[in-house]
Every structure is written in C-alpha cells, then in structure tokens.
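Hi Y.,

Following your request, here is the sequence exactly as I used it, all 329 residues.
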Amino acid sequence: MPAPERLPAAAVTPQEVEQLLTTGSLAVRGRLTGASNAVFYATVTAEGRSTGCVYKPVAGEQPLWDFPDGTLAAREVAAGEVCRAMGWELVPPTVLREGPHGPGMCQQWVGPPPPGAEGPGGEDRAGSADDADDGTAVPVTAPAGHLPSGTTATADPGAATAEAGGPAVQSLLALVDGDEPGPGWRAVGYAQVAPDRTALLVHADDPDLRRLAVLDAVINNADRKGGHLLTAAGGGLRAIDHGVTFHTENKLRTLLWGWAGEPLDAEAHEALAALDARLADGEPTAARLARLVSPRELAALRARVAALRADGVHPLPGGDWPAVPWPPV
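Below is the corresponding structure, written out as tokens. Let me know if you'd prefer a different format.
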C-alpha cells in the first residue's frame, strides 16, 4: 500500500486542513515530554492524505485554580476562531474531535515531525496506532519551540537563532546587556538573570508579533511565552498553546509588551472592526464561540474588543496579575 500523501501546507486552505483534522483517522505516534498536560504527537489520514498534528485530550488536562476543569481544549479552538475572524492565520488550524484518549484538541503540527516520531510519509516510527489502543505511547522529543521550552534567549540579539519546528530562524526574543533594545527590537523590561546581573528582555519589532500582541489582548492570553512562537514552513509566524484564554478577569500575561501604550495601527483597527461585526448575535462566528466558551466569557470578549476599539492603543500592564511570564521560554 502506498504511503499517504503528505499534506503540503501551501497547497491547501486552512478549512481543508480543518476538515482533514476533523474527519481523518487519528493515530498517536508518541507522547511529547515537558508539558504539564498530556500532549501527543499524532497523524491524521483520510483519502490518501495525511498531516502531523498535536492531540491534547481533555482527560489529560491538569486542574487549574482559575479556569473551569476540562475547558482548555475548547479555548484553544476558540482562539483559532477569533484569529480567523480577524483575518489572520497566526493560529494553526485547530479542531475539537474524538481521539484514542477521548475528546480533545487537535491542531496541525508546525514543522517536521519531532525526533523519534513517525510523521506523514513514512519517517521512522516511534509508536503505532496500537499505542493508542492500550493507553501507551512512546515519549518523543518536540523540536524546541513546540513546547514551553523553546526560543533561545541570548545576549546577542543580532545573531540570535531559535529552533522553531524547522530550520534555525532569527530569534524573536533576546536578553541584552544595557538599557536600549537596539534597532529592530522592542524593550519588554528588566530581568534578574543572575544574583548580580540584570538584562533587558527584548522582542523583535516584527509585524506578525504586533498582530499577535493584538490577538492576545483580545483573547486575554494568560501565558504568552517564547516557546509558543513558531515559524511555518513557508515563512510567517504561528502561535500555539492557547488553553488559558478568555477569562472574564484581566489576566493578560505576555512577553509582547513592546508596543504597550502606543496607538494601534490601521491593520489592527480593521481586524478589530471585522471581529466586532462577527461577534454580533446571529453571526456564525458568535454561534461557534458560544459552544466553546461560557456566556460570561463571550460577553467579556465582546467588551475587550469594544474597549480596544474605543481606546485605540495597545494595552498597558496592570492589576495584580504578573504581566510577564518567567522564564520567558
């Protein structure tokens, strides 16, 4: 039997990828180590086409004190819905579906398969479909960046590189000595990196990062780390791990504070206007989100969008909630 055709990212629409993720046969190839929740690398195959994916079963979610149990997978899907409604493709195609370990989130994998795992097209096998049947899976190592240990912070941002599920790319985050971020970088704040040393945490002055900063403010992302930033095969930023989002209280915690207090650009205003319209009662986006988050959370989402449009600026850190996650990766 010929191996299934590997799905080329540039040849299909996100909707086609979502269809494959939803209807394809899901086979677990290994469990990714280093995550607090159960995370599996898997493949989905249908009609001779296949793609790698991340599968996070609801049953593997660890309870959190501030989020309802069993809701993280739906929040990841909701983040993708909001991103698409804003006209952006920053979040890889993401669906809710049944899997070998019960219902969960299934998201297209960004980059080549993790070392030791079988990817679509017949790479070396780390597990088999049978692994999912008996509740076991072979541990595999994710490329740096696909789990919360990822983008490398360095004291030389001009030469920084990071593995992001693919070839080395210019780092989006860095730690630098001194008080100025340098051309092409935005300052976040000072970090204590040793008992007798502080460094300036910076991120790239990058248009995709700026879009992501707006998206995170909209979905109230409580955990935007460097390891959540990936580079797609065809270029462009992709962002993952959106389980702690859509809380009704302000919990924005991110590394992307470089534009805080600055006016939103024209593209952000257009994206927020498009989202605002799609959040109206009776709109398909609003109906889908109503199945993924609570009524109070949907109302809070609408309020955040309205506030961002009215204020016209990137939000500032505030409140008792820690504004920056640490460590940054």
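The longest helix spans residues 295-311.

Thanks again,
Q.
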